Structure formats: structure tokens, C-alpha cells
Amino acid sequence: MATDDQDSSPAVGRDPGPGSGADAEAPMQSTGEGSPNVGSSSDAAAGDQPVRLSNLPWAITDRSDPRTLPPWFRRAVVLVLSLALVLEISKWAFGQLTNFWFTLFLAFFFGITMEPLVNRLAARGLRRGLGTAIVMGGLIAAVVVFFVVFGQLFAEQLAELIRSIPDLLATIIDWVNQRFGTQFDQNAILDQLGVKTADIAKAAANLGFGLLNVLGTAIGWIFNFFTILLFAFYFAADGPRFRRAAMSWLPPARQRTFLTVWDISTEKAGGYVISRGIMAIISSFFHGVVFLLIDLPYWLPLAMWVGLVSQFIPTIGTYLAGALPVIVALVYSGPGMALVVLAAITLYQQIENYFVSPRITRNTLEIHPAVAFGSVIVGAALFGGVGALLAIPVVATVQSIISTYGRRYDLIDEFGQGPDASDLDRVEAAIRANDKHYRD
């Protein structure tokens, strides 16, 4: 038994058979190694799939998963979409309120136009509200008196003048064709200008109804007019309070800059509009009296045309203003009347240049004619006739701000010794600056 036990014991540990424990471990090791192989093959299969929005693990935040989006991605998407939505809503709201912004802009310039007069009344002890009411009431009263006295006459003459434009154009074209042998056609010229005879007749017919009917059909314009007056009143009357409220949001250094810009805008732009308005009234009155005395047709609208166009359209405004009355006089009354009208316009221009303009515009900003003319074109292209009128005050404000905060330098020798130096002077200055012989 002992021998059997001894024989059986070493047999188990000495010579393992095919079904022994060693052989059993080998399959288990291979099975253990095979388990990770199975998992890695599944990951490889998942990694081989194309990445689409449908199989992205949006809810997975495990950074070990290569398909997981960064934690900030969803917040960034929400932020970008929110900003895009706010931008679209802002653009839509701004587009819907375009008329309001334009009205507010017009009222602001009307307010700063009145503010110099309001400041003078306030310096004499009047409250700003009362001073603003006096200035605005005076302007409104003057307009009302003008339309009560001349409104019907102005509407009738303007309608007749517009209605006579085709006849005036036909007369001018016939005269040019006879004198110069040309073959201009009236309808072709009107088509090139985008104007039709029927449109002219319709405009004249609308004006021919009379002033009261015209005002009765202009409810929207009246509402806008009173809206502008309301905002302009607050801009002029509460100007100091508005400045203090706006400057309270700025640091002290910025407050001084803001105050300087506001004072420049008030004095320069407001003074420019006031001076031009006064000169337009004087010019209209002078030409109206002359045209009435010489019995010129359509004397009232032509006088207002000369006064407004000559003052608010720079450079070529004087020529445009004088051309229409001369043409009307030439067509309806002959060359003699045209010469009288031309002489009257020329005489007033000399009086204005030497006596009227220096006294009225001495404290206002002068703008270069090319800059003024370009600003009028841009303003008319953007906002029509009102934009053309507001363009010069805006440019006057910008130019005055640049002249206040800008910095100028002395010119080098190559530019000569003065603004009137000729090209030869500049060449000689350049030679003297660069040639050692001249420097020594």
C-alpha cells in the first residue's frame, strides 16, 4: 500500500499527462489573453465606423473615448447661436426703426441749432425751457405767417411752374437746335433723366388743389414734424442735464473730451445752420422784391429757390439758383428781362460777399467748397433732400473736432516757404535742402 502510495504520488507530480493541470492552465491563459483581444477588436470595429452626428456620443463625457466632444463644445454652440439670434433681432429692430432714428437724428441737429440762441437767453436770466419755447415758437410763428400770407400764392405759382417745365424745356431745345444745328429731342432727354411728362402733370395737379387740401393729405408729415419738434425741444431745453447724465458714465478725462465735442458741435454746426438760414431769408426777400417789381412770372417760388439753393448747396449752388430765373425770364419775357434778372442776381452776390456774409458767418466754420459739395452729394444719396441739408452741419462738426484734436506739423523745406510758392520755388528749395553747395 505504501509502495502504491509512493508510486502514485510521484506520478502525479513527475510526468504530467495530456490532461494534467499544466495543460489545463495553458488553455486558461490563452482564454485570459483572448478576452482582451475580443474587446480590442470591438473597439477597432467601432473606430472604423464613419463619424457622423447620428453616432456621436453627445451625452458621454469620458475623455478616454475618442468620439467624445470637448466639454466646452456644447456651450460654444449655444453661445454662437444665441449671438446670431441677437444679431438678427437687432438688425430687424433697427430696420423697423429706421424712420425713428432718422427723425431723432434730425431733431438732434435742430436742437443744437437752437441751442446757441437758447444759451444767450439763459445767460440773460430766462429759464432754458422758456427760452427754448420762445425760440421754437418764433420759428413756428414765422412759418405760419408766411404760409398764411403767401401759402396759396406759393402753391399756385409752384404748380404752374412745374406744369410749364415741358414747355420751357421744349423752347430751350428748339433754340439750341436752331442755333447749333443739333437734333435734340425733348422726350428722349426726359427719358434719360427718368422723368415723364405725365409725372410732371400729375405733380402739378396735386399741388393745384391748394394749400389746405395739401396739408389735409399730409397727416403723416405733420406727425413727423411735431415729433421732430418735441425731441428738438428736449435736446435744446435739457441740453445741460442730458450732458451731465451722459458724462456721468465716463471717466473724468473722457468727460472733458465729451464736453469739448458737444460744445464744438453746438457752436460750429448750430452756428453754421443759423447763419445759412439767415442768409437764405435775406436772399429770398431781396430776389422776391426784385422779381415782383419787374413782374417776373412765378416770382415767389423762384425767389425761394434762389435763396435756399444758393446758401445750402455749395460751389455750384449760386449758378443753379440763378440759372432757373434767367431761363424763365428768357422764355416768357425775352432777352431784355433775362439780362435784368441776371444783373439783379449778380448785384446781390456782390453785396452778400462783401457786406452780408462777413458779418453773419464770421464766427462760424468755413468748409472747403470741394468737401462741402461732396458731403451734399453723399447726404443726398443716403437720405435724400434732408440728408443733403444735414450733410454740411455734420461735416462742419467733424472738421471742427479734427481741427481741435488733430496735430499739424511744420512743412519741410522741399515744399517752399509759403502756400503760394510756385513749382520752381519748391524745386529750388529742394535743391538747397539736399545740395551741400547750397547748404554751405
Q: What can you tell me about this protein's structure?
A:
By secondary structure, the protein is mostly helical. Among the domains are: 99-240, no CATH class; 255-368. The chain is built from 18 helices and no strands. It is extended. The chain starts with a helix and ends with a helix. The relative contact order is 0.06.
Features:
440 residues; mainly alpha; 18 helices; extended; disordered N terminus
Question: What order do the SSEs take from the amino end to the carboxyl end, as H and E?
Answer: HHHHHHHHHHHHHHHHHH
Quantity of strands, as a count? 0
Runs with pLDDT <50, length 5+? 1-46
Helix content: over 70%
Helix tally equals 18
Strand content: under 5%
Instruction: Give the radius of gyration.
Output: 42 Å
Major β-sheet annotation: none
Distance between the amino and carboxyl termini: 137 Å
User: What structural class do the secondary elements suggest?
Assistant: mainly alpha
Silhouette: extended
Average of per-residue pLDDT values: 74
Oligomer: single chain
List strands and helices in order, with pairings:
Elements: H1 2-14, H2 21-47, H3 73-96, H4 98-123, H5 128-163, H6 165-180, H7 186-192, H8 197-207, H9 211-216, H10 219-237, H11 239-247, H12 252-293, H13 299-312, H14 317-333, H15 335-360, H16 369-405, H17 423-434, H18 436-439
Summarize the structure in short:
The chain has helices at residues 2-14, 21-47, 73-96, 98-123, 128-163, 165-180, 186-192, 197-207, 211-216, 219-237, 239-247, 252-293, 299-312, 317-333, 335-360, 369-405, 423-434, 436-439. The protein has 440 residues and is mostly helical. Among the domains are: 99-240, no CATH class; 255-368.
